[in-house]
Amino acid sequence: MKLTKTIIVSGVLASALMADAGTMEIAPYVGGHFFNNNRDLKNSVEGGVILEKALMDNGVAVAGALGYTKTKKESNGDDKKVGTYGLNLIKNYDLGTKLTPYLGAGIAGTMWESVKVGPNVLAGLKYKLTDAMNLRAEVSDNYLLNGKNDVKAIIGLGFLFGGEKPKPAPVAETPAPKPEPVAKAAPAPVVDGDEDGDGVKDSKDMCPHTLKGLKVDDKGCFHSAKLKVNFDTDKAVVKKAYMPELEAFASFLNKSEPVNVVIEGHTDSTASDKYNQKLSEQRASAVMDILIKEYKVDAKRLKAVGYGETRPLADNKTKAGRAENRRIMAVADKETQVPTTK
Question: CATH 2.40.160.20 occupies which residues in the chain?
Answer without folding.
Answer: 2-161
